Amino acid sequence: MDQSPKGFSSPFGLLLRVNFLQMWRQLTQAGTRSGTLSTMVAMFLLFYPLIASGMFWGGLRYISKFPGLGDLLIEHLIFLLFAMLFTLLLFSNVVVGYTNMFRNQETRFLQTLPFSANNIFQWKLVETTIFASWAFLLLIAPLIIAYGIHQRATLDFYLITPFLVTLFIILPAIFGCWIAVFMARYLDRSLFQTTAVLLLLFMIYMVKVYLQPEAATEQTLETRVLDLTDRLLAKTQFAQFPFLPSYWLSSTLTNWVDGARALTQFFIAILAANVLFFGFLGFTETGKYFYQSLSATLSRGSLSGDWSQAFYFAPRMCAQVILLAWFLPMVDLSALKEYWKGEFKPLAVSYAAQKNDMDISTKTLGNWSTNQVLQIEPRLANGSLFALKPEIRRLYERIESGEMQQLGPDLEYLINANLRSTLSGLDMARRRSHLRGEAMKFAAEPEATLIPEAPRKVVNILRMTSKPVMNKTHLVIPKGATTPDTNTIYRLYYRRLVEKVDMENNPTGESMFVTDFGNYFEGTLAEERNNQLLLTFSSTNFGSHIQGAVAQDFWGAAHVASSKLDRWALAQVTDSSEAVAPHSGHPTSLYSTVLLFIPLLAIGSWIINVRTVHLFTGAGILVLMGIFMVQSSQWKNQLGGAENLSALKFIGTGTWIIVVVAVIQICCAIWKNPLTKSYQRWYQKRVEQQKVFTFQPGFTDRLLQQLPLLSPDIRAVVLKDIRIFWRDTAQWGQSLILFGILGIYILNLRFFTEQFTSLFSSGRFGSDYFSKLVSFMNLAACALNLATLTTRFVFPQFSLEGKRLWIVGLSPLGLNRVVLVKYLLATTISLAISIPLIWLSSNMLQMPTSQKLFFCGGIAVMALALNGLAMGMGVMYPDLKEDNPSKIVSGFGGTFCLVVSFVYIGLAVMMLGIGSPFGSPWQIFGRANETQQLIYLGLFLIFSLSVGFGPLAYGLRKVRNFEH
Amino acid sequence: MIELTNLIKEFGDLTAVDDISLTVNKGEFFAVLGPNAAGKTTTIKMLVGLISPTSGTAKVCGYDVQSDPIEVRKRLAYVPDFPFLYDKLTPWEFLRFTGQLFHMTEEEIQERTRALIPRFSLEPYLKKSIESLSHGTRQRIAIVSALMHNPDVFVLDEPMVGLDPHHQFILKEVLKERSQTGMTVFLSTHQLSVAEEIADRIGIVHMGKMVAVGTKEELHNLGGTNNAALEETFLALTREESDVVTQRQLQQG
C-alpha cells in the first residue's frame, strides 16, 4: 500500500492530512463567518445530548416497567436499533460513496496524480465512512448513554462502546462502497433511476408483507397480552439474525452491561475479525474495480436511451431477479386463512347476537360455545392442520373456565397465530411449513401431552323444524329428510329471535333466529305414519328431559296456542369425534429443499454467464416451478380442503416472478442477437425521427400554454424551473426515500384507530382521545413532510440561479417577479402534494368529510406559509457560488429555515387543535366554544401569514436592490 | 514520449475516438485542434488514464497508461480546462501538497515555486483561501502545481480559457522554454493562433479521427491552395463543424 520512498509521506497519509486540514478550515470558518450559526451549533451540541439522553432514559424506564417483559423489550430495542442503524448506514454509504467517488472532481484530479487507484479508493472509503456515519452516530449516542445509565453500566461500558461502534461502522462503509462501485460499473443513469424506483417499490412491498398488521381486539388485548407481545417481538426477529454485524455489536453491549465478559470477548473477536477481513479486502483488492467503474462513469455520456446492450446483460439480470424473487412469497396461504375466517364469521355473528339477549344465560352461552368448538375441531384439525389441536383445546378450556367471552375473534386469532400467511423459497428450503407458533412446536413433537379431557358429547344440528305438537308423553314433528336412528339421543332446541349487534355491541335494528341451547326437549326419535316423527322421553321424569324455562313453560301450557314458539331445531347428540394425528407426510411430493436449486442455479448462471448455462438454468427452474405449481393443489387438500379455493390461489408472487423471469432468461439467451439488432433498428429509426427538428413546443410547454393568466415570460420561468427540476434526478431521487416512508405510513394508518381507540376508552381523556391525537399527529406529520420538501427544494431555488442570475435578473421580468413566480409554482406543487396526502390519510382514519375539509384547509394555509418562509429565507441567505442544492440547504440558511419551519408547525398545529370544532388532544378541559374557536383559528391564520409572508415580503424587497 | 496506437473509444453506438495513432517525441510541442465534440478531450482523458480505451493503447515515456499507471503519472502533469483545487486550502498549501505527492523535498518545492510563482503573479494570493480566487488565478495555480515537479510530459486541455492575455503570453513562454529543455507538451485548444505560434506539430481531430498531422507549413499546404492560412486549412478539413454531432450520428447510422 505504501510505496513511498523513505522520508516521504505516503500518498494516503498526504491525502488524509490535506483533507483534514480542509475540514478543519471549513469548521473554523463556519464559526467565524456566522455568530448565530456557531451559537446554534454550540447550543445543539450542549443540549441535544442532555435532552435526548434524558428522553431516551425516560422511555427506557417506561418500557422496563412492563411486568415481566421490560428487560426483554429493552434488549429487543437495542438489537433493533443497531439493525436499523446498519441498514441506514449501508444505504447512506452507498449514496455518499457513489457521490464521493464518481461525482466528485477530486477523484478525477487524483486519478492524474501519482496515486494508485487503490490509494484513491482507500481515501474515498475513509472519507465516505466519515461523511456517511457521523450524523447517525451523533443521533444514537444519547440513546447508548441512556441505555448505559438505565442498566447501571460501569465506566468501562462508556469507554469500550465508542471503540466498538467505530469498528462497527467500518463494515457498512465497505459494503456500501462496494455496492457503489458495482453500481457505477454496471448502471448508467437511466438504468440507475429505474433500479432505484423499482427497489423502493420492492422495499415498500416487503415492509408491507413483513409488517402485516394483525387485528387486536379489545378482548385479545386483555386476555392475550403475552401472546400479542410475543408476536410483535417475532417481527423484530430479523434483528437477531446471527450473521448481521449489528447482532455482534448489540450482543457485545447487552452482554457487557450484564457482566457476561466471556460472551462479550467472543462477539468483540467476531466483530474485529470481520472488520479486519473486509477492511483488508477493501484496502487492497478494490482498486482495480474502482478504476473500471470510474472509467465507466466518465465514458457514458451518450448511453442513455440506447438500451440495446440490455439484451446482452438480460440473462444475467434475470438470474439476479430470480435470486431476489426466491425470497418473496412462493406459497401464499392467505386465501386459506381467509377461508377459515369466513367459516367462523356466521358463528361469531350468531354468538354476538345471543350474548346480548338477557334471557340467554351465561351457562347456555358457554354450552353453545363449547359445542361449536367441539364441532369445529375435527374439521379444522384434520390433515396438516392437526397441529392446531392443542390451541383449539386451549380455547375449549377457556370456555369451560368461563374466561372466554368472544368466540369469533379468538378463533381468528388462533388461525393468525398458528398459520403463516406466506412461505418464501428460503422458508421452504429451511423446511418451514405453514405452521408457526404453538402449532409448529406441537407438530414437531406430536407425542406431547397437551390435550386435556374433552367433553364426550357434541350436538349436531340436523335441521330446522316448525313448532312441535304436544302429546302427553311425546312430541310430534314433521319428518322432513331425517331418518331416525333408534340408538341415538335427539334434542329439539328452541330457536329464539334476537337482535343483531355491531362490533361495538350496539343493536343494528336487524334481528335473527339463533338456537337457544338452554331450552330443549331430549329423547329418542321414532318414525310415525303420515310423515311424522315422535320425540319420546325415555322416562316419566320430565324434568331431566325438558331443559330451560321456555321449554318447560311450553310443555306446561301445551294446549295454549303460541305463535311465538314456532321455530325449533332438531339436533342429534353424538360422541365427540377426536381428531387424530395424520400420517406424517409432506404437503407436496416435491420436497421443498429441492427449491434450494433455484438460487444455486441463478448464482451459477450469473457467475458463469454463458448461453448454455442460462438456458439450462431457465429450463431447470421452469421445470421445478412447473412441478411445484402443479402440486399446489396438494396444498389445498392438505390444509383443510377449502373446496371453493382454486389451486392457483396458493401460488405466491415469488413463484410467478420466477416463472416469468425464467422465460425471459431463456428467450434472451436464445434470441440475444436478433433481439439486440431489432432493438437497434428501432432505436436508430427513433433517433432519425428525432433528428427531424419540428420547432414545435414540447408537451409541458403546450400544457402551460393552456393555462390562463400566464404571460409568456412568466411561463418561460415556470417551464425552465419544472424542466431543470425534473431532469436533475439526483436531487429529487433522494426524496424517493421520504415518499417510501410516507407510503408505508399511509398503508399502516388505517390500522391505527381501530386498534388503539379501545386502549384509551377508560382513560381520563375520553374514548375518542386517541383518534383525536392521531388525527392531529397526522396533520403534523404531513406538515413536517411538507416542511422537509420546501426546505430541500424551495429554499435553494433562488441560490440555484447562482451564476446564471444575470439571465433572469436582467430580463424585463425583474428579479422580484421571478421570486414571486417561483413561490407561486412551489406553492401550487406543494398544494397538489399535501392536500391529496392529508385527504388520503384522513380517509384512512375514517374521518367525516367536514373534518377532512378542515384538515385540508389547515394544510393549505400551512403550505402557503411554509413555501413563503422557505422562499423568503432562500433570498435572505443566498449562496450564489454553489451549484449543488443539497450543499446550499446544509448551510446556515437552510438549517435555520428547517428549524423555523418545525417550530412553526408545532405552534400552528397546537393553535389549530385548540380551535378545532372537531375536538383535539389539547382540549382536555372541554371543547372550545364558538367564539374561542374563531379566536384560535384567527390566531392560526395571522400566525401563518406572518411566518410565511413576512420573510417572503422581506425577500422580495431585498431582491429589488440585489447586486449581482 | 507519447505513443497512441489505434486508440478507439466508444460510448454506446457513438465512436468518440476512432482509431487514432500518433507519436509525439521528447521535447516536442504538439497541439491538437478540432471542432466541438471532435474527440479531443476524450483522447486526452485516455492519454492521462482517466478513462480506459475501448481498444488500442496509450503509452507515455514507454509505459502503458493502463498497465503502468503509476509510472506514467510520475512523469506526467495534466491541467484540465476547469481544474480541481482544494477550496479551503491556500495556494501555497496546495502547491506544497502537490510537491509532496511527487516526493519533492521542502528545498525543491521552495526552489521551483520561487521561480514559477512570480512569473504567474501569484504572490499576492499565496495566503488567501483558494475559494476566494478568480477562475484565471485558480488556473494559474493549477499550471504552477503541474510544472513544479518538472514532468516529462505536460498535457493541457484548453489552458487559455480564463487566462488574461498577459498570463496567456507567460504560459506560452514557459511552455516553449520547457519544451526546449526536453518536456513534451500535448495541448488541446480552439485558438488556432496559439497552435500556430508555438506548436512544433499540429494535429486536427475531426469526428473522432486524426484527419491531419503535421507542421504548420505542412498543414498550410493541405488547405487546398498553397500557403493557405491555418484557419482555412482547419475549415476545409472540418467543414460543417457546427453540425458535427448530426454528422457523427449519420456516420454511425
What does this structure look like?
The complex is a heterodimer of chains A (964) and B (253). Chain A starts with 10 loop residues before the first helix and ends with a helix. Chain A is globular. Chain A folds into five domains: 62-211 and 232-297, no CATH class; 307-332 and 423-450 and 588-691, no CATH class; 457-575, no CATH class; 694-727; 735-960, no CATH class. Chain A is 66% helix and 8% strand. In chain A, helix 14 (334-355) runs antiparallel to helix 15 (362-380) and helix 29 (729-756) runs parallel beside helix 33 (815-844). Mean pLDDT of chain A is 80; it is low at 755-764. In chain A, strands 3, 4, 5, 6, 7, 8, 9 and 10 form an eight-stranded antiparallel beta sheet that branches. Chain B has one domain (2-78, 152-252): 3-Layer(aba) Sandwich (Rossmann fold), CATH 3.40.50.300. In chain B, strand 9 (201-206) and strand 10 form a beta hairpin. In chain B, helix 3 packs across helix 4 (106-119) and helix 3 (91-101) runs parallel beside helix 5. Chain B starts with a strand and ends with a helix. The chains are: A alpha+beta (964), B alpha/beta (253).
In short:
The complex is a heterodimer of chains A (about 950) and B (about 250). The relative contact order of chain A is 0.06. The two termini of chain A are about 50 Å apart.
Summarize the biggest pleated sheet of chain B: 6 strands, mixed
Proportion of residues in helical segments of chain B: 25-40%
State the shape of chain A: globular
Mean pLDDT of chain B, to the nearest integer, reads 86
For the largest sheet of chain B, list the strands in their spatial order. 6-7-8-3-9-10
By DSSP (H or I, 4+ residues per run), the number of helices of chain A equals: 37
Q: Which shape of chain B, going by the Cα principal axes?
A: globular
Order of helices and strands of chain B: EEEHEEHEHHHEHEHEEHHH
The counted number of beta strands of chain A is: 10
